[in-house]
Design a protein that fits this description.
Layout: E1 3-7, E2 10-12, E3 18-25, E4 33-39, E5 46-52, E6 57-59, E7 67-72, E8 77-82, E9 91-98, E10 106-107, E11 111-115
Parallel strand pairs: 2-11
Antiparallel strand pairs: 1-3, 3-8, 4-5, 4-9, 5-6, 7-8, 9-10, 9-11
Length: about 120
């Protein structure tokens, strides 16, 4: 059974950077896709970025100028580099793994990111 775990959240000031990490374990194959969502208080979960194990990358237009996704397909890990953080980036950030095309996401527990002066 796949397990997904995020790390790297924390509190930063506006303009600073943060890097989130995520690892999928308990599986012997590479996740077809891994990526990130976030959910701010009182808001719906918002998709941020996805990267497949064949190199296709998609990033939300809302963050593409500041956030970068990368992954190591063999290790089932994905990173989210977040630069020039803003208070509105404050949210719980969730990682997901899609094992095969057409299947649903397997979610991590989330990691809190707080941007405040």
């Amino acid at each position: 059974q796949v397990q997904v775990a995020e790390s790297g959240g924390g509190s930063v000031q506006p303009g600073e950077s943060l890097r989130l990490s995520c690892a999928a374990s308990g599986i012997s194959i590479s996740c077809y896709a891994m990526g990130w969502y976030r959910q701010a208080p009182g808001m719906q979960r918002e998709w941020l970025a996805t990267k497949t194990n064949i190199g296709r990358t998609t990033v939300s237009g809302a963050v593409k100028d500041r956030f970068t996704i990368s992954r190591d397909g063999e290790k089932n890990t994905v990173l989210l580099q977040m630069d020039s953080l803003k208070p509105e980036d404050t949210a719980v950030y969730y990682c997901f793994c899609i094992l095969k095309i057409g299947e649903g996401q397997k979610w991590g527990q989330g990691t809190q990111v707080t941007v405040s002066s």
